[in-house]
Amino acid sequence: MITVWVFGDQLNTAIGALAEASPSTHRVLMVESQRKIASRPWHVQRSHFYLASMRRFADDLRVKGFEVDYRHADTMTAGLAAHRKELKPTSVIATEPNSYRARQLLEQLKVAMVESNQFLCHHTDFAEWASGRKSLKMEDFYRRQRARLGYLMDGESPAGGRWNYDEENRQPPPKKQSDWPWPAPVTDDLDQLDTDVLSALPSTHWGEAPTGLWATSRDGAVRRLRHFVDNVLPMFGPHEDAMLHDNWHLAHSLLSPYMNNGLLLPSEVCDAVQQAFDDGKVPIASAEGFIRQVIGWREYVWGLYWLWMPEYANENALGAVRPLPPAFTDANATKMRCISRCVDDLDKRAYLHHIQRLMILGNLSLTAGVSPHAVTNWMWESFIDGAEWVMVPNVVGMSLHADGGRMATKPYASGGAYVSKMSDYCKGCAYDRTKRVGDDACPFTTLYWDFLLRHQERFVRNPRMSTQVRAAQKLSDGDAVQKRAADVLHMLDTGRL
Ligand SMILES: Cc1cc2nc3c(=O)[nH]c(=O)nc-3n(C[C@H](O)[C@H](O)[C@H](O)COP(=O)(O)OP(=O)(O)OC[C@H]3O[C@@H](n4cnc5c(N)ncnc54)[C@H](O)[C@@H]3O)c2cc1C
Ligand code: SF4
User: Fold this and answer.
1) CA angle 63, 7, 29 (to 5 degrees)
2) Which residue, judged by its Cα, is nearest atom 46 of ligand 1?
3) Per-block mean pLDDT, blocks of 10 residues, the chain (497 long)
4) Alpha carbons 79 and 53: distance in angstroms, whole number
5) CA-to-CA separations, 258 to 33, 128, 230, 268, 349, in angstroms, rounded
6) Separation of 122 CA from ligand 1 center, angstroms?
7) 410 with 426: CB under 8 angstroms?
8) Is 460:439 a contact under the CB 8 Å cutoff?
9) Domain boundary, last residue among 257, 289, 308
10) What is the pLDDT of residue 166?
């Protein structure tokens, strides 16, 4: 028998090596590595999601007739060695894993790799697209993907006559929230398998226990996809960038965990969206806004990871060395209403939407100079959909500008004005978003100006930043801003901000 080794983020029978396998000729190996589970302070919902999904997938494979050797081993290597010793497979194969380190491991262990079809653009195709280009603009890649894959296309032209509906999307929160009845997410009851997984997790795990929000089976993931497409997608887009204190999901799909662990394929997600558009059930701006995220941003991030790893993970162009602020792990360690809300939400569900990640947690990390390595690790441990391939470009490149602008030509730094425009966080906050100096000055506003002054030499040369830097240089209270920033950073470090 040939063994197909399936990793915890490849849980789909249509992926790579498993797609070619048959119960009469192939056996499946899955390994739960105790060392990996205990290696970091993972959010309890994240570990539960991965482990429960693996165990249920193994059960699904058994129903399909496969013999599954599901091992609890100290390490992945030990699991494979024990499998080889006991069951003596003729050979061991695996689908190309999704992380750089796992691919290295398979090479060392002499496991043959089958090309992965888990993403819509293989990273070698991405490298071909990238080769010789002066700049790797997401928009160019996205249009190529649209044309190549045929989503929302009328022949060779984009459906509706435009490639991009961003102008209609990305609005502030609606004035009347009752006009936007964002449907509540689907939940399921937990069962004995969930209890078994949870009771074995080490005490180093943190966060609130799962409530059934995140599916851990193919069936649950497919029901959530249907719910999104039928009930939520028509509202996706316009308020994609908005943040509300009392609504954590708005019209976001909450599908990233399933695309990342394989329970859903990006192609079936996009096919369902295309079908809803063809049936006249969703406006073009919503369909385009969503498809752009999946075939554009998601695949772009995946391609960049493989293009620039392994050096990329260690880049730190702005020399940021601050440790992770206590406020990121304890919602009570700050009076900043925006940070406190996001950290509390993270504790509850291991999820925040894109703008909370980028413009609240990322923005504070960027302007305060928190180490990219610390932020990457913390987010990887904390988010339900965390994985190295997606965390590194999003944190090092997009959020923290630690790659010196290779991915995003301008840093996503902003003051309290942006947060105030795009959220309702500032009302009732202890700080005043309009002030940059004084005891009640908004830390975002102070740190934004201080960031521009600290890095003025670098950013004054950036055409997309020079106006802002020049404005900072002309501030009449520049010294007071820098003094207040030093106090803010001290309070941030000591959990008193
Ligand atoms: C600092 C930071 C960290 C992030 N960490 C992760 C992570 O660990 N895992 C993860 O999957 N995404 C990550 N993202 C991207 C994005 O925030 C999440 O994919 C999204 O919030 C997931 O929620 P959703 O499924 O409801 O997304 P929706 O708003 O419904 O978007 C649809 C889909 O688009 C894809 N997508 C959109 N933007 C991105 C992007 N920049 N990178 C990759 N996929 C994207 C996701 O698959 C998502 O499910 C991060 C972004 C930032 C700025
Ligand atoms: S005033 Fe500043 S700290 Fe308070 S919620 Fe607004 S942006 Fe956040």
Assistant:
1) 55
2) 256
3) 98 97 98 95 98 98 98 97 97 97 95 97 97 94 97 95 89 87 96 98 96 98 98 93 95 98 98 98 96 98 97 97 97 97 98 97 98 97 97 98 94 96 96 97 98 96 95 96 98 97
4) 19
5) 21, 28, 18, 12, 15
6) 19
7) no
8) no
9) 308
10) 86
Together in a domain, 42 and 74 = yes
Task: Locate 262 and state its tokens.
Answer: 């394989």
Centre of ligand 2 from the C-alpha of residue 375, in Å: 21
What domain range includes position 63?
2-114
Q: What is the CATH number of the domain that holds 289?
A: 1.25.40.80
- Is 436 near ligand 2, meaning CB less than 6 Å away? no
What number does the ligand 2 atom closest to the CA of 445 have?
2
The contacts of residue 149 (CB under 8 Å, 6+ apart) are 120, 270, 295
The reply to whether ligand 2 has any atom less than 6 angstroms from the CB of 151 is no
User: How many domains does the chain fold into?
Assistant: 3
* Residue with tokens 């609606």, as numbered in its chain: 174
Q: Does residue 130 sit in the same domain as residue 227?
A: yes
Q: Spell out which residues line ligand 1, taking CB within 6 angstroms.
A: 252-256, 259-260, 290, 293-294, 297-298, 301, 353-354, 357-358, 362, 379, 383, 385-387, 390-391, 394-395, 398-399
433 Cβ closer than 6 Å to some ligand 2 atom:
yes
Instruction: Give the end of a domain, one of 70, 94, 114.
Output: 114
Q: Are 238 and 318 contained in the same domain? A: no
Q: Are residues 145 and 293 in the same domain?
A: yes
Please tell me whether residues 142 and 88 are part of one structural domain: no
Are residues 327 and 342 located together in one domain of the fold?
yes
